[in-house]
Amino acid sequence: MILVYVDHDRGEIDPISLQAISAATALDPDVQAVIVGHGGKELAGEIAAYGATAIHAGHHVDLFDFTPRAHARAVHSLIEKNSPRAVLAGGTPRGNEVLSHVAALMDAPFASECVSIVLTGADRADIVRARWAGNMLEEAVVVAPVLIASVQAHSFTAVAAAAPLSLTEFEVPLSEGDVLVRVQDRVGSSAGGVGLAEAKVVVSGGRGMDGPDAFSMLEDIAGVLGGAVGCSRVVTSAGWRPHAEQVGQTGTKVAPDLYIACGISGATQHIAGCKSSKTLIAINTDAQAPIMGFADYVVVDNVHTFLPLLIEKLKAANQK
Amino acid sequence: MEIAVCIKRVPLLGSAIVLTPDGMAIDTSKLGFGLSPHEECAVEAAVQLVEANGGSVTLFSMGHVDGEEQIRDQLAIGADRAVLIDTNGVEPDPQAAASALAEAISTEDTTFDLVIMGSESADYGGSQTGIRVAHKLGLPVVTSVKGLKIEGGVATCERAVGSIREVYTVTLPAVITVRDGLNIPRYASVPGRMKARKKSVDIKQVTFDEPRITTKKFTIPDREAKGATSLGSGDEAAAALVDVLKQIGVLT
Amino acid sequence: MKGKYMSDLPSSAKAVIIGAGIVGNSVAFHLADLGWRDLVQVDKGPLPNPGGSTGHASNFIFPVDHGKEITQLTADSVRQYREMGVFTECGGIEVARTPERVQELHRRMASAKSYEIEDTEIITPARVKELVPFIDESIILGGFYTPSVGVVDSLRAGTIMREKAMALNALTVSANTEVLDIEVTNGRVSAVVTDKGTIKTETVVIACGCWSPKIAAMAGAHIPLTPAVHQMKDIGPVPEFADAKGDIEYPIIRDMDTNMYERQHGTGLEVGSYAHRPILHDVDEIPSNAEAALSPTEMPFTQKDFDLQDEHAYEIMPQIIGNETVGQKYAINGLLSLTPDGMPILGETPEVKGLWSAAAVWIKEGPGVGRMLAQWMVLGEPEIDLHQSNVARFYDHHKTRAHIRARTSEGFNKTYGIVHPAEQWASNRNVRLSPYYEREKELGAVFYEGVGWERPFWYESNAPLVEKFGDAVMPRTSEWEARWWSPIINAEHLQMRETAGLVDLSAFAMFDVTGPSALDVVQRAALRQMDVAVGKVVYTPVLKPQGGYQSDLTIMRLGENQFRVVTGGAHGMADLKWFRDLLPENGTASITDLTSAYSTIGVWGPNARKIMQKITSADMSHEGFPFGTSRVIEIGTQRVLASRISYVGDLGWELYIPIEQGLKLWDAVWEAGQEFGLIPVGIGVYGTTGRLEKGYRAYGAELDSEYTVLEAGMATKKVKDADFIGKAAHLLHREQPVAAVLCGLTVVDHTSSTGEKRYMLGGEPILTKDGKPITDAKGRRSFATSAGSGPSVGKHILMAYLPPEQAKEGTELLVEYMGEHYPVLVERVGIAGLFNPTNERIMS
């Protein structure tokens, strides 16, 4: 049996968790899911649709929003009870955080950000995990009776595989220390409009924008396409744009339908954050910039002269 | 306020990674080194807290002894002293790393009010060392923090989840792992560097437990040669691009 | 499809230029400008910044240099940068922290005047502060201010030049194209193999900066340079520069005594250093564009090597450097190219025809080098004489990694150093030792190095002669002029003129031209008639196409079809290439390099004949062995080629002997000479005092391609019928009035303002009596091409080209030396020497 920790935010399921379920299904058809907190059990049907044979919904009077160590406690209690061969989660900050706590509670290894998992024995697994945010892969052997691993975002595809709904609710056994760190409040994004991580279209600028002024053109384009503005690390380091807009290994990782990279050369740090985009269009004066190797469409031109032309055409097209 | 900051020396990469012939390491012979951006923010945060509240910043780093240079860079921006745990060329797995760090932090004469780390290292990206250190030290831990305020012994931390920010509070002592974007790390000044040369860097030896995750080799993923379609340049390219946008359905 | 950036390479090209830095772009443009078409330029990096040294250069240009060649290349480059609109004049100040440096700054002033850099001045610390308010003027003693110092946009300049060549439909550019091999067929380039295809071509230019050695090696040629680190950092934002509008608004400071520079750069301050330990790399240690975090030549900064420099920068600019809010934004170990002798490496490689080097060039020389190289390739010679940069100058040992590393390590910290004109290298010595070396050591020889040879400059065993000749040795009290000098040189000179001297001339380069066409080859090279009787020795100019000097050398006709060319060591390999290039393709003449086969000694002085006659039965009388002839004589069991010529103004012979027999010959002459007062005489006499008294010209000092035979006063009465290189130009020169004439001048009064006697060392500007620089009709300044003692005439001698107006015996002029003016007198105009102008000492 494989246990999968499914993350959600007030009843909105984390898509990477579904990818984790599909990854688990490939290891063992017997996949069970654990979901914790307010609004969790209502998601059981959705989880079952991806092939989880049993869903354990943990609750506790002290649990409302995300409480990392309490979630770990829930996972841990199910491990002790059901002895899964492996525990998986999505390679998201929360998924990794919960599994880290689980691993720490058990003093067990935790293989984060896996792109491949093969169980090779009772306590051995061959894994491939992302290093450098996926720019390098590590082939490793994990020795543990219960493999704890997270799957790198977008390295597995969530595949619908309807299973009959089997929901069990349980009370998470909590101690005081488990709820010390918990979400106390939630504040909205300072920037209005579409959030970078969720945006279907991201229009990003890099060093080639030569300063903050030219970003108004990107805002125009994002406005027309209903997207968000992003940028490279150079841009935030220079103070041209807020850090919240940074796409990359240490910024936000995005997977929009369309990513337009303007004047971005494509350092590993940046590629790590945008390579999952469905369509990537790069605009750069240098036809051989690394970003061009990842792009589906390239425009070899200067952003300062090209973007005004594009905006004009976009606006014209939009009016029709 | 006594603050411990854990930092890790990593190579500064270009757009391609070159491995050693045996595939067991990155060939760093032509590369420089620095810190993960998360950790630069960690040091900056610690220095700002000490500037505001008094106290001192102690850096803990684990790795090659040559990492002293990157440690001095951080001493130059205002950290006070450092402990370098010499790994003798061995890369510990996260469990072993956390044990060694927790051991080093707890055996210092100083009792730390706060341990700040990066949310994950740039190279290993295990996303767990801070949490493991917290468990070893018996401290609460808040991770992936991008906003930090400390008042009356309580840290208020923000972290980004999608388009919203979650707020956590935690009473010190605690471990906090931070992300790039928490602040804009300052550059070291020349006087800072001159002072840094006189600050102490204690080098300690360590013996690691048997690894539970054993690296077999590294590989570089094949870049999917997408065979990009060139749209040309200028007016013609702008028109072609609009067509592409219609084709993929983002423009109707 | 021409004139395009493209990824499909043409299959053939008139020329392939490898490298798209400032040099490659400039070569491409100037080749196109001179009419070449079907050019292809490749670079393994992207455009416009392929990742070489151009991309991270500090881009400032100080026009003044002590060398004429570099100064001219820089001046030409500045002119081009200005025309392209990428030059921002900001001024520059070299500051002195020590009295010795103040003197050096006065030397800079002199060089500025000699090579026509206007408006430079020595300024006070207060004035420096006025110009650069953030300097601590209390630690400096003064500055050398050059208002015409400027900063260029070298990447933009490269793009402009590349695009101009493309606009001429002359150039195809292929970036991200790596050269994998250069194919050579019958000693000539035949193709360039790249990862995007092979280009057939007979001409390749290597403009690859620090990668050049690797590319040259693909063809079997050598470009002896090493990638080396120059550290720099950019700190900021500097509050003082908050309002800076432009890239640069303050003069650049060169803090010469700490080997550093500081320049405002926007809101930042850029601090660079040549003070750190030499950090050399091998080409294979440079990362690829993809691997590098910044660019391949912006290597990781090593702070430890800069620790001391931080403190030095703090001393001179405490207000900025000491500001704790000013952070280090950027710091690199930037790679540049260093050569063993500090000069660029230009021209066609001696190993492979059609393979041209344009390497080891700084931003300040880039466009000029491009223009000169294109002229060289298209027209056969560049208008600026480039003999010091000629890739053909190197001997084999110069090409070794160990030599390159030794000399560049030693030379690196001299970048801003006070380098004495006679300064010797300390590293990699004792490479070439003459057969007499041990004897010379026993005699207390003080060795100077010339192209690897250890050459006695003077002999301590002659020290007693200093007392004998007293003030006639013209003793020097000033440390600068006494450095790398000894009064013994002048004592040896005087003694040789009384008795005789034995001179080791092993450093000569020599080669035989042989075969049925040998006469044609030497005729074509030499200005003078070479169709002479066997046994004749001919001293002749060798001209370039435009009639300037390629060389001056002697050629002995040893047989109908055998000519031996003997030339100076320094220029020997370039001469060897010059002659080799003249060989007919049908193989009817060939050249054999004998440089390491024969050794030479000279015996000169009134007693030379007596000494020679004592050891040989050959007839050594004036009639029996006339001047200007050579023949094999027997000395004991040795057969020695003797040649009756003289470069010191006294009777005597050069003796050529197989190297392994040299010692026996030396001993024979030495022993025979004892009763005739023979002394060992060093190169100090041979190369300076002896020749200057006689007005003998030296290649590289008086003679180079920028001066004509007429100007040098070396024209023959008639011009030979046979054709020779430069003949047409030479004939034209004979019809025209000369713009300047080489003259012999003497210093009238050596006394400085402090009462000390000062002696010029060469390179000083010659001024009119009212202190104005002298410029001839071709725009060339008058300066001392050579300077040195004339002990036998009791005067300090300067040679200088003067316009006809001043070139009159008896004209009173001035020479500027270390900031002061000294009166000089024109004593000789043209070829005649000051000592024994009628030559009976030689000709009897």
Keyphrases for this structure?
heterotrimer, B: 252 residues, alpha/beta, Rossmann fold, seven-stranded parallel beta sheet, three-stranded antiparallel beta sheet, 6 helices, 14 strands, 30% strand, globular, C: 844 residues, alpha+beta, D-Amino Acid Oxidase, Chain A, domain 2, Gyrase A, domain 2, Alpha-Beta Plaits, nine-stranded mixed beta sheet, six-stranded mixed beta sheet, 24% helix
Q: Could you outline the blueprint of secondary structure elements for this entry?
A:
The complex is a heterotrimer of chains A (320), B (252) and C (844).
Chain A: E1 2-6, E2 8-9, E3 12-13, H1 15-27, E4 31-36, H2 44-48, E5 54-59, H3 68-82, E6 86-91, H4 93-106, E7 111-119, E8 124-131, E9 136-143, E10 147-152, E11 167-171, E12 183-187, E13 201-205, H5 215-225, E14 228-231, H6 233-237, E15 258-262, H7 268-274, E16 279-284, E17 297-300, H8 303-319
Helix pairs in contact in A: 3-4, 5-8
Chain B: E1 2-7, E2 9-11, E3 33-35, H1 37-53, E4 56-63, H2 68-76, E5 81-86, H3 94-107, E6 114-118, H4 129-137, E7 141-145, E8 147-151, E9 154-161, E10 164-171, E11 174-178, H5 190-196, E12 201-205, E13 213-219, E14 229-230, H6 234-247
Parallel strand pairs in B: 1-4, 1-6, 4-5, 5-12, 6-11, 7-11
Antiparallel strand pairs in B: 2-3, 8-9, 9-10
Helix pairs in contact in B: 2-5, 3-4
Chain C: E1 15-18, H1 22-33, E2 39-42, E3 60-61, H2 68-84, E4 87-89, E5 92-96, H3 99-114, E6 121-123, H4 125-131, E7 142-146, E8 150-152, H5 154-167, E9 171-174, E10 179-185, E11 188-194, E12 197-200, E13 204-206, H6 212-218, E14 226-236, E15 252-255, E16 260-265, E17 268-273, E18 298-300, H7 307-316, H8 318-321, E19 327-338, E20 345-348, E21 355-359, H9 366-379, H10 401-412, H11 437-442, E22 445-450, E23 453-459, H12 463-469, H13 479-482, H14 487-498, E24 500-504, E25 509-514, H15 518-525, E26 537-543, E27 549-559, E28 562-567, H16 569-580, E29 590-593, E30 598-604, H17 608-615, E31 630-635, E32 638-643, E33 652-658, H18 662-673, E34 678-681, H19 683-694, H20 727-735, E35 741-747, E36 766-767, E37 784-790, E38 795-802, E39 812-817, E40 820-829
